[in-house]
Design a protein that fits this description.
- The chain is α/β, with parallel strands linked by helices and 259 residues long.
- The chain has helices at 3-16, 29-37, 48-54, 65-77, 94-103, 118-134, 157-173, 187-197, 213-219, 229-246, and strands at residues 21-23, 44-45, 83-86, 108-112, 141-145, 178-180, 202-205, 223-225.
- β5, α7 and β6 form a beta-alpha-beta unit.
- The protein starts with a helix and ends in a 13-residue tail after the last helix.
- The relative contact order is 0.14.
């Protein structure tokens, strides 16, 4: 077994374990090193929004794909942990983007459906999994994302949930091991999704308003990640420091030397 396939198998195992996998997303080398060093961290995930913002781009595939992959490569090189990369909607050619990511050591990825027609979105998932297998990473952990809740607008919540379930099932049938349903989901919606997709198949985003992590673990959720929230937490700390300095204060007493 190659090192790449070994890390992919470990990342897949972490998703399939009944213990909830939590990943606090990173966006550069220093954040990767800091998060990796915290006891209990078993895997890393990048945040596409955060990487783009740190390089001056708006979110939404505005960063050139090779620039995104280059930053992901630096993150992979900075840790011994398996790394999953947020690759938005695939930058126009999802299988090729996945091949590039695997080429720099990535063993999992988020891929948005962007609410394309379901047959098209499912075909893209299937093509990505074929590409990963062709690269020698059969256990590639594609976290197939549906934007059903994010793009729900004023649709009936029951219809949105049914749409997310239909898309999630189609992505699993197409070979994805897990399905990402970001949104402020309540417990009833999480239960319905786990019942429909199966335990350790659903991944969520950790935002205010969702059930506690301990409850999500009990319900059979596979993973919770945090997207751009960690960068916003870091930027909030920076903004507070600036405010304190302007008010005559300074560096907080509980600051850690991490860099």
């Amino acid at each position: 077994m190659t090192d790449l396939q070994h890390r992919a198998s470990e990342l897949l195992r972490l998703h399939q374990d009944p213990s909830l996998l939590t990943v606090v997303n990173v966006w550069d080398v220093i954040t990767a090193k800091v998060v990796s060093a915290v006891e209990g961290t078993t895997a890393l995930a990048t945040a596409s929004h955060s990487i783009a913002a740190s390089r001056g781009y708006e979110d939404g595939e505005n960063i050139p794909v090779d620039e995104m992959i280059a930053e992901v490569a630096r993150i992979v090189a900075a840790t011994s942990l398996p790394v999953s990369a947020d690759l938005e909607g695939g930058y126009g050619d999802a299988p090729e983007t996945i091949r590039k990511a695997i080429g720099v050591g990535v063993v999992g990825a988020n891929l948005e459906d962007q609410m394309k027609p379901l047959s098209e979105a499912a075909a893209q998932v299937e093509a990505v999994m074929r590409a990963a297998a062709a690269e020698g990473v059969a256990d590639f952990v594609l976290n197939a994302r549906t934007d059903a809740f994010l793009k729900a607008g004023d649709r009936d919540p029951a219809d949105v949930l049914a749409d997310a379930i239909a898309r999630g099932r189609a992505f699993l049938d197409a070979g994805a091991p897990v399905v990402f349903v970001p949104g402020r989901l309540n417990e009833e919606q999480v239960v319905a999704l786990v019942d429909a997709l199966g335990p350790q198949r659903l991944t969520l985003i950790g935002i205010p308003g969702i059930p506690p992590l301990s409850r999500l673990e009990e319900l059979g959720v596979a993973r919770v990640s945090y997207g751009p929230m960690p960068q916003n937490v870091a930027l909030t700390a920076l903004a507070k420091l600036v405010e304190d300095v302007h008010a005559g204060g300074g560096v907080p007493a509980d600051m850690r030397i991490l860099n």
